[in-house]
Specification:
Preprotein translocase SecY subunit, two-stranded antiparallel sheet, 18 helices
Length: 418
């Protein structure tokens, strides 16, 4: 691995991409410590650290939320907009046509997602400001209308800047820009969290949790790279004097095809009642529902159930067995022992449903178990080294290494995976 990194820095073009990526990430981390105008960061810090929901958002924002920085919303509005656009492709025919128009259609989808990101950032900034205003009012801190307007504009501008940085990394750097920014946000919290956890009297709990988290990483890598390969055979075709086909290949179906998307979906739905309750603090039944879904065993049960549901939902959305079977038939391919057409699509769908179940249960377990441990211990390391964080970090690291691997192999170097 060390030799592969040395080879990457020996190639001028690849070295520039790596340095550019690291430079943009460094700029992103600077923005996480620049507070918005008119806010006392110390009062916000104590508020964020006292609420688990805000603590999770603070983790994904890389500590920007507790500073009430211009990057407090993080990259989540853009990710949410991107996921919504993927869902709309199955609902709105016009967006589905865009997805099949190649580069021109992809530009339309990207542009629509950008505008949607700004709209989501506007709503989230108002919701965040409402939460902080209601909590800080008890301490005598009240924002004027001008201050509120400046805060909302600053948060929206910060989201637009993060979106621009992520797209720059994707275009001119190495890896997926949005994923790398989330990766940097999570990793940036590790040193402070580890130090504070070991400062407590029950430091041996922290050591045990750290060891368990490190042992979970191989399991995550195993599930991320796990796949079921369906064999495919192509019939021979004679075109002129040449013979085409006659070779065997396979269809790779990932065990965890949805990656971390179901966890994001489930978290967003469970946080929705809490967000609505902040706008209507006098409605008792709405507040009770929000509190029940925000923490406790009811939250854990709903969280696990939603993750399993959205794993199947998203996998069915991004992989179409009927289309795959139709493409195989058109190209003269078939699965040995299975008739082409409807029987092939049914076979692929059955295999996909079977391998999705262990992936869904794994996602639910890795997202829920850290919350159970946190309820029992209250250790901050559980949130920092939780299953969701590890899943995101391992997935981003593997994807970035794959891209570096392809770049090195194009230049006749050995890569990371041998």
């Amino acid at each position: 691995m060390i030799e592969a990194i040395r080879n990457a820095f020996r190639i001028p073009d690849l070295r520039k991409k790596i340095i550019f990526t690291l430079g943009v990430i460094a700029l992103y981390r600077v923005g996480a410590h620049v507070p918005v105008p008119g806010v006392d960061p110390e009062a916000v810090t104590s508020l964020v650290q006292g609420q688990s929901a805000l603590g999770l958002l603070n983790l994904f924002a890389g500590g920007a939320l507790e500073n009430f920085a211009v990057f407090s919303l993080g990259i989540m509005p853009y990710i949410t907009a991107t996921i919504i656009m993927q869902l709309l492709q199955a609902v709105i025919p016009a967006i589905e046509r865009w997805s099949k128009e190649g580069e021109a259609g992809q530009r339309k989808i990207t542009q629509t997602a950008r505008y949607m990101t700004l709209g989501i950032a506007f709503m989230e900034s108002i919701g965040l400001l409402t939460v902080f205003q209601s909590e800080l009012a008890a301490a005598g801190i009240v924002f004027s209308f001008a201050t509120k307007a400046v805060i909302v504009i600053s948060l929206i501008a910060g989201t637009a800047a993060i979106m621009w940085m992520g797209e720059l990394i994707t275009q001119r750097g190495i890896g997926n820009g949005m994923s790398l920014l989330i990766f940097a946000s999570i990793v940036a919290r590790f040193p402070q969290t580890i130090f504070s956890a070991f400062q407590s009297q029950e430091w041996y709990y922290s050591l045990g949790l750290l060891v368990v988290s490190l042992l979970v990483i191989p399991a995550v890598v195993f599930m991320e790279r796990g796949q079921r390969r369906i064999p495919v055979q192509y019939a021979k075709r004679v075109v002129g004097r040449r013979v085409y086909g006659g070779m065997g290949t396979y269809i790779p179906l990932k065990v965890n095809g949805a990656n971390v998307i179901p966890i994001i979906f489930a978290s967003s739905i469970l946080m929705f009642p809490t967000t609505i309750a902040t706008f209507f603090p006098d409605v008792g039944w709405l507040k009770s529902i929000a509190e029940g879904l925000a923490s406790g065993w009811l939250h854990i049960l709903f969280y696990a159930g939603l993750i399993v549901f959205f794993t199947y939902f998203y996998t069915a959305l991004v992989f179409n067995p009927v289309e795959t079977a139709d493409n195989l038939r058109k190209n003269g391919g078939f699965i040995p022992g299975v008739r082409p057409g409807r029987a092939t699509s049914q076979y692929i769908e059955n295999v996909l449903n079977r391998i999705t179940l262990p992936g869904a249960l794994f996602l639910a377990a890795i997202a829920v178990l850290p919350q159970v441990l946190f309820m029992g211990t209250g250790n901050p390391l559980v949130q920092a080294f939780g299953g969701t964080s590890i899943l995101i970090m391992v997935g981003v690291a593997l994807e970035t290494m794959r891209q570096l691997e392809s770049q090195l192999q194009m230049r006749h170097y050995d890569g990371f995976f041998k």
